[in-house]
Design goal:
By secondary structure, this protein is α+β, with helices and mostly antiparallel strands. Among the domains are: 7-153, Acyl-CoA dehydrogenase/oxidase, N-terminal domain (Butyryl-Coa Dehydrogenase, subunit A, domain 1, Orthogonal Bundle), CATH 1.10.540; 157-273, Butyryl-CoA Dehydrogenase, subunit A, domain 2 (Beta Barrel); 431-567. It has helices spanning 7-17, 34-52, 56-59, 76-85, 104-117, 119-138, 141-153, 275-311, 333-365, 371-403, 415-422, 432-443, 450-465, 471-490, 494-499, 501-526, 532-549, 552-560, 572-575; strands spanning 64-66, 69-71, 157-161, 177-181, 184-195, 205-211, 224-229, 240-245, 256-269. Strands 3, 4, 5, 6, 7, 8 and 9 form a seven-stranded mixed beta sheet that branches. α5 runs antiparallel to α6. The two termini are 47 Å apart.
Length: 577
């Protein structure tokens, strides 16, 4: 059941849902004309469909560690080479460094197709994209000249190294050391959970490693960032050892490594003891990227389930009056419910991810006086995109298994792989709980709630624009989100905010998705004559979201305001009884 890049859906979201036409009106992104964007999306659609998607199932056999070297699944090297030859690593990189200089929004659409086609392989270029962004923002000219162009070309690949056995989300607890050595440093320590930490796709791997200098302050204030290549300029090994590969639930094709740095030579990126700020440049890119991974899997799982439901004959079907019976399970009402939910949740996640990317682009490209507001919007939406996108990937792929029935539990169908692969995305780059805590602890209060209110006002304006049959539902969700936001802002006790943080994140994500899909619904109605079947589908899916899924925000809003008392109703000892 092959994946086909949903180019019309992507284009519709860009044009009418996230409304990204403003990007080409800026000086920075003037080259991102509709013709250029169509050409880029078309080429990636072809590559994802024809070259990358066939690697999804065989890649599940996994990467192997043999004699200290990682060997990736058959076909991965050819797939990566196709990405490198097409310049896809540098799509959003600066043109003067060899990139295309296109908006992050277009990179986001491209990343979606790669994630749908083969999530395991797509992680490799995603890590490199983050490395490119961090080095562009913080590295010296000499480091950029030596490493950046090779990362942009895809000749080399990049990684980020944060986690250690004793330091997971608490990065400040890391113990990796950096000792000065002339104009460089010697890095010693161990890192775990390093995605694509070793592989056979490129001649060199550029690791960005967090480490602590001698006499550095304790905690996160004493962390610096270092560039550590696997091989030095003369081709010699640089003391970066792959200790083992993690045995994972999914993403078997993506090698997740335990790396040991044994006096490895590295160079400082940015200022001493400011490494976490440098790394967060990469992590913020990655958080949106991980949300898009969830979106990509949701799209692939939906296509997979739809193809199976249209082919599988089981039971006696009875479509509604006037409908045509196919004899396949797609006629069953409950199967239709599942398929429509998969499509609606996927389109909602796409809307949020693309709108987040647009805000981050406009924070760079808008007139000077508008950039602060766009940056605040991008910062507020990033935890929504990451968490809602990955929750969507998990939920949609789980429904996909159910559509397959008993065959969904059989690996040969491929349905279970989507769920196994996507499950870790809710943990990657700051767990979804951390995203929710960031939302209520920092992003909600960073401007006294002004950005949150702008999201609420956007929904209110959409409600006032036109009265569709679904506008009443959007209004009810808006009222619930407004109430939850006021409650959060009134809480001085952060523990009370944090207790409802995940529910609040879901309230705001659902509201924003509903607002964007309502906008798309109106656009589809206006364009019905151009392509009736396509725009009817847009109206139906948006209406399904607004009718059946958006009201979930009302119960989330109730939960968000309940505080922490019930969370702590039992002592740890009582919980174990």
């Amino acid at each position: 059941m092959p994946y086909t890049a949903p180019l019309k859906d992507i284009r519709f979201c860009l044009d009418h849902v996230a409304d990204t036409g403003c990007l080409a009106e800026t000086e920075l992104f003037a080259e991102a004309t509709p013709e250029t964007v169509d050409a880029v999306l078309g080429e990636m659609g072809k590559l994802a469909t024809e070259t990358l998607a066939p690697l999804q199932r065989p890649g599940d056999a996994g990467s192997k560690l043999e004699n200290g070297r990682v060997r990736t699944p058959d076909g991965y090297k050819q797939g990566y080479e196709a990405l490198a030859e097409g310049g896809w690593m540098g799509l959003a990189a600066e043109a003067e460094m060899g990139g295309m200089g296109l908006p992050l929004t277009i990179q986001t659409a491209v990343n979606e197709m790669q994630a749908s086609a083969c999530l395991s392989l797509s992680l490799c270029p995603l890590m490199t994209q983050g490395s490119i962004e961090a080095l562009t923002a913080h590295a010296s000219g000499a480091l950029q000249e030596k490493y950046l162009t090779r990362l942009i070309s895809g000749e080399w690949a990049g990684t980020m190294n944060l986690t250690e056995p004793q330091a997971g989300s608490d990065v400040g607890a890391l113990k990796t050391k950096a000792e000065p050595d002339g104009d460089a440093y010697r890095i010693s320590g161990q890192k775990i959970y390093i995605s694509w930490g070793d592989h056979d796709l490129t001649d060199n791997i550029v690791h960005l490693v967090l480490a602590r200098l001698p006499d550095a302050p304790s905690g996160s204030k004493g962390i610096s960032l270092f560039l550590v290549p696997k091989y030095l300029e003369d081709g010699s090994e640089n003391g970066v050892k792959t200790v083992s590969l993690e045995h994972k639930m999914g993403l078997h094709g993506s090698p997740t490594c335990v790396l040991a740095y044994e006096g490895s030579k590295g160079w400082l990126v940015g200022e001493e003891n400011r490494g976490l700020a440098c790394m967060f440049t990469m992590m913020n890119n990655a958080r949106l990227g991980v949300g898009v991974e969830g979106l990509g899997v949701a799209e692939a799982a939906t296509q997979h389930a739809l193809a199976y439901a249209a082919d599988r004959v089981q039971g006696k079907t009875s479509p509604p009056e006037g409908g045509t019976a196919t004899g396949a399970i797609i006629d069953h009402p409950d199967v239709r419910r599942m398929l429509m939910e998969m499509k609606a949740r996927t389109e909602a996640a796409r809307a949020i991810c693309y709108d987040t990317a647009k805000a981050l682009d406009m924070a760079r490209a808008a007139p000077e006086g508008d950039r602060k507001a766009w940056a605040a919007r991008g910062a507020f939406l990033t935890p929504l995109a990451k968490a809602y996108g990955t929750y969507t990937g998990m939920e949609v792929s789980e429904i996909g298994v159910q559509v397959h029935g008993g065959m969904g539990f059989i690996e040969e169908t491929g349905a279970a792989q989507f769920y196994r692969d996507v499950r870790v995305t809710a943990i990657y780059e700051g767990t979804n709980g951390i995203q929710a805590a960031d939302l209520v602890g920092r992003k909600l209060s960073m401007d006294g709630g002004e950005t949150a209110r702008s999201i609420l006002n956007e929904a209110e304006a959409e409600i006032a624009t036109a009265q569709t049959p679904m506008t009443r539902n959007l209004a009810a969700v808006h009222e619930a989100a407004e109430d939850a936001t006021q409650w959060m802002l009134a809480q001085n006790d952060m523990a009370e905010r944090l207790a409802g943080s995940n529910a609040y994140l879901m309230v705001m994500s659902t509201l924003h998705a509903a607002t964007l899909l309502h906008r798309g619904l109106r656009a589809a109605e206006a364009h019905m004559a151009d392509d009736p079947d396509f725009y009817l589908a847009k109206i139906a899916v948006a209406s399904y979201y607004l009718a059946h899924i958006a009201p979930e925000a009302i119960s989330y809003a109730i939960s968000a305001k309940l505080g922490s008392s019930l969370h702590y109703a039992l002592t740890p000892e009582q919980m174990a009884v």
